[in-house]
Amino acid sequence: QAKKAGGERIFCFEANMEAEVKHRYKMESEIRAGIPRQEFVPFYQPQYGIRESNLVGFEVLARWKHPSGILIEPTDFIPLAEDTGLISALSFSVMRQAFIDAKDWDHSLVLAVNISPVQLIDPTLDKRIMKLLAETGFPAQRLELEITESSLLEDTPQVLSTITSLKALGVRISLDDFGTGYSAMTQLKAFPFDRIKIDRSFVYSMLDNGESAAIVNSITSLAASLDVPITAEGIESDEMRAYLDNIGCTDGQGWLYGHPTSKEDLMKLLPQITLPAREAEDDRSEKS
Ligand code: C2E
Ligand code: MG
Ligand code: MG
Ligand code: MG
């Protein structure tokens, strides 16, 4: 009896493995086909200056408009896209759409784009970004690339040279999800970051967990002493905002300010940014 049950378990395990392999294979071909069809689209999450509550820009977050009608979140397709080498084409498709969308928004607004560790080891990344900026007319000065600590574990001269050449163009580099990786301090010294983002896992619990609060406090004062602006992720309440303002955190994003939003919904929410930059400037001078 016991033997039989074990045998069934093994059979069941193999059947699951096979189903899993089939599922991944199906998804891979769907991702491959979906990229040129622009099924991967940019959503925009606002980033605010905490003290003045002023809009400073948007983080670009990919969403998959699956042909079945479902909207799929990045955690469900980015890892597979990374494993299959499709991440680069996918990210460039999303970035291109974002540059075109945001080009005519108020020229003070920055776009923050996520770059996966897999993309960062591509020795042609800087050239490809340069080419996309030139083709779309989006200014390098309005682009910020978010990279994670794990990107830098390789710490190859190649990665440093890519970052250096992008910075020479005027592109800024921020360190995403700070505090969740390894050897954070060494990397702060080795790489010339323009911004640090505190991971939302610390922000989430800082009001009722002493350790989280200590981590948020010390990352914020570290950033201040390095004279680097800092963005807190995952601000969901006004209490969180007030706490962060009080300790000197400069910028923030999270549900308090806005969820990631499609371009169409954003246009309804913030009509002023739909104006071409010229008109937006005229508008301001009329008021003053
Ligand atoms: P991330 O860069 O750390 O992005 C922040 C994530 O936090 C987003 O999840 C956002 O929706 C979520 N978030 C923002 N505010 C709040 C809040 O107040 N509360 C809570 N609970 N969550 C909040 P999302 O959109 O699911 O993206 C997940 C990750 O996928 C991103 O993490 C980013 O690393 C990656 N990703 C997204 N788009 C792209 C892309 O185009 N290329 C690459 N390479 N990675 C991407
Ligand atoms: Mg999400
Ligand atoms: Mg990010
Ligand atoms: Mg993050």
TrEMBL record:
The chain holds residues 225 to 512 of 530 of the full protein. Residues 24-274 form the EAL domain. It comes from Parasphingorhabdus flavimaris. This is Bifunctional diguanylate cyclase/phosphodiesterase. The lineage of its organism: Bacteria, Pseudomonadati, Pseudomonadota, Alphaproteobacteria, Sphingomonadales. Residues 278-288 have a biased composition (Basic and acidic residues).
